[in-house]
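Researcher: Structure for this, please.
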Amino acid sequence: MTQSTGPRDAPLHDGAGRQENRATQEDPARTSEFLGPKPWLVLGGGGLKGLAHVGGREALREAGVRPVGIVGTSIGALVGACFAAGLGWRELAPLAFALERGDIARINRRALLLNGIRQESLLLGEPLRAYIRAVLPVDGWDDLEIPLQINAVDLETGDTVWFGPGADTSVSLEDALYASAALPVLYPPIQVGGRTLVDGGVEFTLGLARAEAQGATGIVAIDVGSGKRSHPDRVREQGLVAIHQRIFSIMAWRSRSREVAGWDGVPLVYVRPRLDGYGTFDFHEIHYFLEEGYRATRASLQG
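Model: Predicted structure, token format:
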């Protein structure tokens, strides 16, 4: 892989983030042996920044780390499904570079009308569903090469629902993937299996406990979610949807931070790519996301 040239704008960092990175780098859990015979890969949500997972997977392959299971949330669920189906850097990098805004983000024009506030979402759901169908090389759960667990949140009860072998497989893989990525306000919820479901990151953006419950002897978690800080002027310029997404990302960051800081389960390699300051749909930064995922994962594995 080529050396990353870095972000267009310097990423934002905070003291807590720097301390967290030092702690994980000093942890002796930076070898595949430490992860034990059944390492699991946990992939978090973060919009287009989730393409960093693709680079991270290549770094794991080079290091000889072969996950026996995957937990994915939102974009992490879709990328995780591609991994579970046997796809890697060679297949997924070209797909990432070919991705265009219209493939997954088309405006729901009714939301722009006078009474558009009553629409379910700003974006149409079908383009995202069509993209999921197009990139997945398998039809269903039984076709996956390794187990996959993905989550969504029940809009009625607020409970997290898990899909995949060992959980609910009555819902199709395509529907489960869409549900996990149905970010409120941006994409419409999906009604399936008697439930109305939205993005799994509403409760758990990084499913560490789920991986441990599935028998993981060690976990590699790649966290591509937004950090504590952002650019307030840029957010305000983009309007109410951007402000809403920023509030959502702050809450998700706090949840992830508490989970990682308080983790006392199986050995954990926590990978935090330098993605702060980037947005959910920064299509012009795809090259950087791929390369930074690779760099950050490789550095974390090396200690």
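Researcher: Any notable elements?
Model: Residues 6 and 187 are 30 Å apart (CA to CA). The chain has a mean pLDDT of 87.
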